[in-house]
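Q: Trace token order:
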Amino acid sequence: MVRSITVGLDGSAESLAAADWAAGEARRRRLPLRLLAAWTADAHDLTPYVDAAARRERCDAMLSATAERLARAHPELEVVGRRQTGVPSVVLRAAAAEGALLVVGSRGLGAVRGVLLGSVSQATVAGASGPVTVVRGEPGDIPAGPVVLGLDPDQPADELLEFAFDAAATHGAELRVVHVWNPAPTVAPVAVGVPGPVGPTAQELAGELRGSLAATLRPWRAKYPEVTVRAELPVGRATRVLREAADGARLVVVGRRERPVPLGPRLGRVTHSLLHHCPVPLTVVPHR
């Protein structure tokens, strides 16, 4: 099966903006673009004055209009639209597993009019087995800056590094690798004796981290020699530092560790915060 880029549509301005971004990404990667409208008609539907047949027709018309608009803008791009009945987050997670990338808008029409809600996008990201990009704003408003990768060199993941380096190469952009850390206290308790350093200093720790980060990036630099890499070790809170790094970036990439939890998939604190506050497209890459 030919891999494709899939975008979730519900007719909202956010989902149409996501479709525009996805079309550009599909063109750059030379992949087909698949438009997917997921909807459900059940007892919880809150649009009683519009029957199911009319809503299906409206959905199909939206898919056709969007496909025609994107095909005119990108004549070389193969665009296919499809409507699928089912729980939206489940349908979208299945699409993420099958394709090269799933793209969704940051918000949808809302519970009354549509199916691709902000909560649906969040549930999709939390449970997807493939990378998901959440687009906020119009593609024309996205800066032509670097790709920013939030990385922990103690827990590197090939899936995450591969995606970030490939994205930078595809866009012809610099890759800015950011590892946020905080130096641990190095002063011994008075009861032990004379206070003083009992472990590596902050400078020594920074040196160790710099070496670890360089070792992590070395094989990927060799695989993608055309990508300019800037590695950074800022001190602070990861949520704040990465949010600030997003200003001026064209894309932010972070990982999500897949692990079994009793209440189902969850997002980490940093990823959850970025999903709500990142001003540019954010890609979340699941990994083990």
Q: What stands out?
A: The longest strand covers residues 33-39. Residues 34 and 82 are 8 Å apart (CA to CA).
